Amino acid sequence: MPSETAQTASSARVVTLAANASFVPIGVVTVLLSPMLPMLSARWSLDYAQAGTLFTAQFLASTVAVSLSGLLVARYGFRFAINAGLLLTAASTAMLLAGSRTVGTVCIAGYGAGSGLAVPAANLLVAELNPKRSSSALNVLNFSWSAGAVVCPFLVAAAEKAHLLGLLLECIAGFSLLVMIWIAFLPFGTSETAARKIAERKKVDADWPRRSLPALIALFFLYVGTESAFGGWLASYATSLKTMPPVVAVMTPAFFYASLMVGRLLAPAALGKVDEVRLVRIGLLLACAGMAGVARSHHVAAIAVSASAAGLGLSSVYPITIAFLSREFGTAAARVGSLAFMMSNLGGACLPWLVGVCSTHFGKLGIGLSIPLLGSVAMLALYLPAWWSTTPEVI
User: Fold this and answer.
1) What is the second-level CATH architecture of the domain 2-186+205-382?
2) pTM of the model
3) Distance CA 89, CA 375 (A)
4) Integer Cα distance of 62 and 93 in angstroms
């Protein structure tokens, strides 16, 4: 019936909006380590290699949580997985500065695990609720993540200057809890039933594993690793140059995440004129140029321009790759997605750590930043051959 269809569409819009709201605090905590890393390194007397292990703790915990996320979605639905992630994120963020380095590392792992629970569930939920425009909807969802990531460095810089970091972390935790309560009272409707039907399938489509699987898995690993390595070390790199005030250096990741946000906002319009694959290829070329520029930059203006180019170039890669995953594997996307999101978090655990190890070995953080540059080159190489089997979405 038309009224039923309209009601379902309205419910899908509200749930999609709630998923977007959940991505704002998740975006904040995902990049929180980047602007706080110079302060935490000084507080806990860490060198580059030791500081890199904090990223490893965050993303390894996220990897474990991703593997649990699929099970939670299968048993309890999307709502439970998203809210469990938000609750863990809130508790861990509030306690981050409450104790020693060990306690802090556990909290970093805790909010990493919270992201690992919520992010796959929210991405797959939005893709399912918007099957005819999944790339656009996922770009908007990740725009919300970017919004949180953009404000994070500014909030940290302002709170650190005012000696109110503890209060800031408590506010982030409080906002996460408010979103969790909102989601708890929303009618998820058919999306929960669909999640269980996906989980009840004993096997995926007959031709699985498809030829696209290795490329998709590699792209997930490389993308999150590259974004985390570049964005995560940007404030520390700017601080190491000693050519700008520390408060300004702490805010430099905002240029990267702001351009990620703008790129995801503009992506739906761009997809009306350029197909998905071409947009990704152009973006990765721009990302490579931006990352190479940052490694050669020594002043805030040059870092801002180069970091912005890198963010704009990377902006559509992840949402479009998720859209390919959803369309390539259909009802098997939740199962394959668990593996893909696990690999993405392994990338986040490995590549930022490699930046720290290389920087300590060579005594220069700029050399370590060649790791995300190589990651972008590898992603571009993966997007050159046609491994996908479905027609790219055109809006």
Assistant:
1) Up-down Bundle (1.20)
2) 0.77
3) 28
4) 15
